[in-house]
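Hi team,

Below is the intake form for Putative ABC transport system ATP-binding protein from Kribbella italica. Please confirm the fields before the structure is written into the shared record.

FORM ID: S-0412
PROTEIN: Putative ABC transport system ATP-binding protein
ORGANISM: Kribbella italica
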Amino acid sequence: PPALLLDGITKTYKSKAGAVDALRGVTYHFQRGSYTAVMGPSGSGKSTLLQCAAGLDKPSTGAVVLNGIPLHGLNEVALTKLRREQMGFVFQAYNLLPSLTVYDNVALPLRLTGKRPRRTDVHDVLRQVGLEDKAKRRPAELSGGQQQRVAIARALITQPAVFFADEPTGALDSTTSRQVLELLRTATDRSGQTVVMVTHDPVAAAYADRVLFLSDGVVAGSLDRGTPQQIA
Ligand code: ADP
Ligand code: ADP
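The structure came back. Fields below:
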């Protein structure tokens, strides 16, 4: 099966002001080892797509299937377990815990799955993101770019099947952006992990194998490494 399949998902937000159809039938396969940038104008449904794909929100209709497992068939406990074991999150707000050291922030996802982090594994991922010497620091002592790299190390530690990245370069300077994008690139090239990245940044999109364009809650087209394809 594909690493991630969105099968006809829709999402309607209901409020007193009325209903908003944020996604109006999105079907898409994310192959294992692919790196996809999701682009589109503000309000086109990118965040909603990412939230649904990552099981953080439920689509109104349709299915999200991760490595053959339909998320709607899981209860909250099983979904949380699957998320912790198979998904990595790199969001713009780094969500690091300020009271913990860099080392403990990175080790946390393993501890949450009941595993005892091996010191060498934590140091390996810190080395991958170039922060081996910061293990004992706390997030507030690091620059924004360094904090983002800690967040990536934390996502790498569980070797997730799929990385979800929401504007991962939004708050970074161009040098740090490139480092972060290359780390995600390496995850797909070296380990066959799958990256789904929402971005406005054309530089970020250039690191992807494929760009998925959303417009008004539907897939308006996709672009494969420079070759225009299946423009709807
Ligand atoms: P994008 O990430 O592309 O900017 P979003 O997925 O955030 O798009 O939003 C898609 C549409 O859904 C927009 O019209 C937005 O206003 C609406 N929307 C998003 N989240 C909510 C929510 N929690 N409640 C109501 N409407 C929402
Ligand atoms: P534990 O099983 O409690 O994690 P450890 O000996 O692995 O025991 O680590 C104890 C604490 O020491 C960790 O929670 C962490 O704060 C810190 N620590 C361990 N190894 C390192 C390291 N190489 N660099 C920085 N801090 C470390």
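SUMMARY LINE: Residues 145 and 173 are 8 Å apart (CA to CA).

Thanks, M.
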